[in-house]
Design brief:
6 helices, mainly alpha
């Protein structure tokens, strides 16, 4: 989903770590939510600080899939709401009729990567209109 970027390189994984931590801050996510979105357990809490300082994300397919989808969600929200940064950053925690009044964040937690894909597909559909 990150077109033309080799996200397996050390430098890319360092940049992505900082980007995703910044995005999580902008979304107003707590530690537990951040860990869950990255597929990490509570024992990895100290890694969040290290990622924010530029330690590289793990070079795993699961982590690449998660980060790619999360950044795609952010990109699509910026396309859909170019003049409303508040909505771009609050949308992920807002209830949505399209998801049976669940939040996109809840969908991602409940459905794991298929939930991430569901959110990306939903946004992609509206961005293409």
């Amino acid at each position: 989903m990150l077109e033309n970027v080799d996200i397996t390189t050390l430098e890319a994984r360092k940049s992505l770590a900082k980007m995703i931590m910044k995005l999580f801050s902008l979304w107003g996510l707590g530690v537990a939510d951040r860990l869950a979105l990255l597929g990490l357990g509570p024992e990895y809490q100290n890694m969040l600080v290290r990622y924010a300082m530029g330690d590289p994300l793990p070079n795993s397919q699961d982590m690449q899939d998660r980060v790619s989808r999360l950044l795609s969600i952010h990109k699509l929200l910026r396309i859909l709401y170019p003049h409303n940064r508040d909505l771009v950053y609050s949308w992920i925690k807002s209830r949505n009729k399209a998801f049976n009044n669940s939040t996109p964040l809840e969908i991602m937690f409940e459905e794991n990567l298929s939930g991430f894909d569901r959110i990306v597909d939903y946004l992609r559909f509206y961005a293409s209109m």
